[in-house]
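Researcher: Good morning. I'm working through a list of sequences from a screen, and I'd like to move beyond sequence-only analysis. For each chain I'm collecting a predicted structure so we can compare shapes side by side. This is the next one on the list. No need for commentary yet; just the structure.
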Amino acid sequence: MSELVTGEAVALELRPAKLPSRALAVLLDLAVAVVAYIVVTIGVVAATASLDEAAQAALSVGLFVLLLVGGPIAVETLSHGRSLGKLACGLRVVRDDGGPIRFRHALVRGLIGVIEILLTLGVIAVIASLVSARGRRLGDVFAGTLVVRERVPAARTGFVPPPPPWLAGRFSALDLSAVPDGLWLSVRQYLTRMQTLDPQVGWSMAQRLATELAGRTGAPVPPGVPPAAYLAAVLHERQTREARRAFAAAPQGGDRPSVAPAGMPAPQEAAPYRPEPAEPYRPEPAEPYRPVPQDPPAEDRSGGTRPSTGFVPPA
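Model: Good morning. Structure tokens for this chain:
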């Protein structure tokens, strides 16, 4: 792991590529470049068979420079440091500050690579990579670049072993407020790695951490309790308290707690609404039908009777 500090004061952790992976990537790039050079050379020679030997030699030199020197430079510039070999091996060329390379970086690496890789069969590049602390060859030193690993295997998350069942709840009354976060982190790291430590080294570390933790809590380690089990039980108690505190602080039912302004009494909670029971519907008894009395028919002057129409003739 190599830690670099950028101009914005940001620390970058980069994994420099090792010599075997870099050598494999260079061999793959050279194999692709040589195959392309042979195929293009055969086609150009067949197309320029009528030219003299000097012209054919000039074309051969031009193709060599174009394909074996200019090709890798163009590929690294366009792919921002990921050639075919580096892409297959999970590598990438970056600047010293962690940024992507540009044409000038690829140009310097390509020109010096002709000397330390092609002309000397890679001997100078291997020696420079072995001497350098970050595995850089001369082209990387002069160009200000670094070959790093892009595909990093994911680290396994540490598993904290649970405490023994006979210690469950034994430290519920322990005061953990004076224990700093750095000590909790040390205890957690020890518990996640104690299976890979030497037994004597792990026992001494557990005793030291248990003694320091007991001094912070003000209660000694109970007799007969192993230091590792004591650390696991106390850490489990702390995690239980944090989980209980987190769930207890969360509002229930999605309601936000009401906070009264300074100097005013806190609002009282209103009584829950309880609807009164409705009375059953009782229909009123209907009255019996009584016909409306009508006026008797009016008498005519002629002595006859005729229906009343409500019209009064004029006098």
